[in-house]
Write a structure and sequence with these properties.
By secondary structure, the protein is α+β, with helices and mostly antiparallel strands. Helices cover about 30% and strands about 40% of the residues. It has a five-stranded mixed beta sheet. Helix 3 runs antiparallel to helix 4. It holds the Pfam family FolB.
């Protein structure tokens, strides 16, 4: 039986952090919006219906929240890479994508975003 890939999506996780290199960005927190997609083989979890056989997205999300809210980042690239590293820590992750939006970063744009992807 082929592996069934489960896809976990965490959509629009809204957090505040220090992000940017301008003086005002370094002094006050800004909003960021995080979207995460994680793929992992789910055959065992849907056969056993046991939480121990599933990828626990709550644990991942808590780590992301703590890292983002307690961190200070000059570049969006660093923040996205850090969140991607957290998402791919579990050995069963086969693919992870992270996009982080920085709302109101540009005067005439709703948001600026950056995405990174990991594939095993």
């Amino acid at each position: 039986m082929p592996l069934s890939q489960a896809i976990i999506n965490v959509t629009n996780l809204r957090l505040r952090t220090f992000i940017g290199f301008n003086q005002d960005e370094r002094e006050k927190q800004q909003d960021v919006v995080i979207n995460i997609e994680i793929h992992y083989p789910a055959d065992r979890s849907f056969q056993t219906d046991d939480v121990a056989d599933a990828l626990n997205y709550k644990i991942i999300t808590k780590k992301v929240i703590q890292h983002v809210e307690e961190g200070r980042f000059l570049l969006l690239e660093k923040l996205v890479a850090d969140v991607l590293d957290i998402c791919r820590e579990h050995p069963s992750v086969t693919l992870a994508r992270v996009t982080i939006d920085k709302p109101h970063a540009l005067r005439f744009a709703d948001s600026v975003s950056l995405s990174l992807e990991y594939q095993a």
